Structure to design on (117 residues):
């Protein structure tokens, strides 16, 4: 994901890391134009505090190695769900959806990538 973000030329990667206390603090500390969240397996439970912060994000792109329907209980409203692994073209398509939604706003956006290690 980081490689794709860096290749775009229009995203500024602010932070990348595992779901942790630090991730929660980062999500709570700022408002981001776009957040990428890589969800863990459905057997791993995400803390309610993390889910609350993900729900609060204006623009969210979700990635996971499992089908989207397995995460319906999280009640997230992403712009796009990308099934891992995904090619750059799928990433670009998701980014295109974001850009078309925000075409009259900023040229460059702050991106946040929350990954599971």
């Amino acid at each position: 994901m980081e490689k794709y973000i860096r290749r775009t030329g229009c995203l500024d990667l602010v932070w990348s890391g595992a779901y942790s206390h630090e991730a929660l603090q980062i999500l709570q500390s700022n408002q981001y134009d776009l957040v990428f969240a890589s969800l863990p397996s459905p057997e791993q439970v995400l803390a309610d505090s993390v889910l609350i912060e993900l729900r609060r994000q204006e623009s969210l792109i979700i990635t996971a190695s499992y089908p989207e329907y397995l995460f319906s209980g999280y009640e997230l409203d992403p712009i796009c769900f990308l099934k891992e692994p995904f090619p750059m073209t799928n990433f670009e398509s998701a980014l295109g959806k974001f850009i078309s939604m925000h075409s009259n706003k900023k040229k460059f956006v702050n991106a946040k990538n929350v990954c599971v290690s």
Q: What stands out?
A: The longest helix spans residues 88-101. Residues 28 and 48 are 13 Å apart (CA to CA). The longest strand covers residues 11-17.
